[in-house]
Amino acid sequence: MTMQQPISTSMPSHVAIIMDGNGRWAQGRGLPRLAGHHAGTGNIKRIVREAIALGIPYLTLYAFSTENWRRPSWEVRGLMRIMAEYLDRELRDLHAEGVRLRLLGDLDNVDNALRKKILDAITLTSNNTAITLAVAFNYGGRADILRAVREIIATGVSPDEVTDEMINRHLYTAGMPDPDLIVRTSGEQRLSNFLIWQAAYSEYFMTPLLWPDFGPDQFREAVQSFAYRERRYGGRPGEQTASVATNS
Ligand code: IPE
Ligand code: IPE
Ligand code: MG
Fold it and tell me: Is-catalytic flag, 68?
């Protein structure tokens, strides 16, 4: 039997996860939806640990989208409370493990106490080097691009000076590599407004597992599958092509 050989031995530099399926996980157990969100936060530590063990420098987790405000207010309030409790419970361990926290999204609509907790956590962990954990919270890809466009216009730059690189520098992800691999749990096959600019040439790993059930072994499997992908960036099969061309 011939085994398929990996195309590359390289690890992804940036893995981004759409943590979906908490509600269905709870429903399947006859529990309230918020119990599913709570279980979802309980899964984060083991995935972060596995990412550190694999040597992945950037991990992004999609925690709350700009569209998630459309949910009933009790669920939104519950999600905010679960986020605050998560930081109270886990921040010390994340810090001890060398996790540097970063926020993708904006805290304008977030209540003062939670906003302060998030900003304090970012400050506390800012010199850590084991991994950068970017939390996409109140994040939307369109809002990200819109904000970048507004900032660029406000600089007074002329249209022909606007480049891909300039846009990258104004996105929430400034300074981070584009996601090499985007994982989505729960069987849905869509981006749901996640990193839509940055995902131009990302590889995808979709799994039917619900987020609380997606463990370190499955995460490792997703990362290992990346080595079998041939990334062409519009070039021809078998030819080494640099990443996305820019007009800069
Ligand atoms: C993902 O779980 C978490 C958030 C979107 C905040 P869901 O709440 O979307 O779970 P399902 O998709 O309803 O199962
Ligand atoms: C995407 O999941 C957002 C997060 C995981 C935070 P949703 O459950 O909100 O996505 P849709 O509504 O199914 O597209
Ligand atoms: Mg969902």
Answer: yes
